[in-house]
# Entry
Amino acid sequence: MQGDPKQVVTEFYEGWARGVIDFEALVDADIVNHQPDVEPARGRALFTSAVQGVMAVVPDSRWDVMDLLADGDRVAVRVTWSGTYQGWRFRGFEISAPRPFSVEHIHIYRVVEGKLAEHWVVRDDLAMLVQLDAFGT
# Structure
């Protein structure tokens, strides 16, 4: 797939919204996934597993793209992620029941030869924890 970097990122989120992502077509075999507070993970299998894990606990995920900016091989996307969290733990906190949420994220991707080759994320975990009633309010 030799796509425009913005189109590659758009196809990734469209696939997520449908619940079916073509990881082989959209993600480089050696993708590096940068997440807060952990060492970067390398490889399509780890990236796929991480995304599928999120898809499993939020099967009704909705990603509303508010901004999509590209500069060379980098694409920055500001999204609102919403859905119903159905997991029992989030960031080390127990979650007592499925809960709806809506939070903003900023993701940056490096796209090489039409595939996601690197990913960084800035997310609002505190807002997520509050909405999931992790603190028992």
Notes: The two ends are 48 Å apart (CA to CA). The chain has a mean pLDDT of 95.
